[in-house]
Amino acid sequence: MKKHISNYIRSFFQFLWSLFLNGLLTILPITLTLSIFNVSFRLLKSWLEPIAQMCPKYLLCLPHAEIFIAVIIIFLIGTILKLFMLRSLVHAFESLLLRVPIIRTVYRGIQQLVKAFNPQDQITFKQVVLLEFPRTGIYSIGLLTSELPRELSPEKDKDFVNVFVPTTPMPTSGFFVIVTHDKLIPTDLSHQEAIALIISGGIIKPDRFEQ
What stretches of the chain show up as alpha helix (H) in DSSP? Predict the structure, then answer.
């Protein structure tokens, strides 16, 4: 009799635990997503604090007015550059930055990385590939960038390529590796799908693979 009672009690607590886990696993993605957006929003607000200080007082009555002003400024800059062909001024300012030794290295790297993630730019990642990295038997997602010049090739009779291997969860950092074509496994992943897969640590997969 006591054994049956203990089994019932155990089953009851297991049922309660399953209910708790079901509720937790349901609300956890929602709360984490909201928390990430909340932190990002607060960080964005702190970055735009100088705009808030320069805003006219009648605009401050609007909630988060600095964000709307920043968006409008970005649209205006894009419109001016598009309509009035002021790219030359931007290029002149960029060339000025590229003359400063320390700033040149940082700015050039960030500029090329941003362009690489822009599919509309000619300077972009060519293909998403798989390669054995960091050792044989372990595969990583890589972004094929370009052909390695023959002058830099470690073996002159082989064609090498440059591959960027992003890290999780920050794909803007990673490893630059040089391999031959036969070491790469082509995929049909888009850049956005690959980045989402890397950021999430493999949790977020393309919808077309979930069918």
Answer: 2-47, 49-54, 65-83, 87-97, 101-116, 191-199
